[in-house]
Known about the structure:
Blueprint: E1 5-9, H1 16-23, E2 29-41, E3 48-66, H2 68-77, E4 82-91, E5 100-107, H3 122-128, H4 130-147
Amino acid sequence: MVGTEDVFAYGTLMLPEIVRALLGRLPEGEAARLAGYIRHPIRGEAYPGVIAQPDAAVDGVLWHGLHSGEMALLDAWEGPYYERRRIAVRPCSAIDGPTLAAWAWVVLDHQAAVLEAGDWSATAFREHKAALWIESCGEFCRARARLG
């Protein structure tokens, strides 16, 4: 869509129920892979971060058609460890095809020490943390609405 952006999610925003709670809708999405990055849990948090690593790849979801207000909301939602960067992802439906430009929140270089070893588990997050996160999404959105 004209005037919209695509977002690659590799952590909590891969879960449709989290995206719906934040945006009030569920954009069209598809499985995708981000080459040249690795995902790790962030120490003491329920969510992961990614950093560049040439021989690695991260699977996630490519959400299509986010509007500028939704992008601003996601910028505010993402924590202090990240910056939004333009990246190239490959939809899993066309894994040998061309990459697509999208936005992703990547751990700032000077914040890399907050990353723990190992990979982050979307399954474990969904089982143990997602319900609380959905509630916090609602609280976050209500607070933003009050602030205007």
